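ARCHIVE CARD
Drawer: 12
Card no.: 0347
Subject: one protein chain, sequence and derived structure
Cross-reference: see card 0346
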Amino acid sequence: MRDLYLRLDDLPEETLSYEDSVEIPLAPGEHRISVTNRLGKQAMDFDISEGETIKFRVANLTSKGPVAWLMMITGTIPYRSTIERLG
């Protein structure tokens, strides 16, 4: 499974392997989370209030479609990165 590379705002990039987690304290205000597996990238803007905790789930999902099937025939598994806000 491919690693994921997580970035919040302009902070240093975090590398996440399967089932890893990371906690990053942020100041209240507007922020941007982005995740990539170096093949695809997803990003999301969000606001956080004073004392609020927000959780995100980031993951690699198997891509679908004719190109994905062709890649699987050659032994390559195409993944796409996703972000889901949990709270």
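Annotation on reverse: The longest helix spans residues 66-73. DSSP finds one helix and six strands in the chain.
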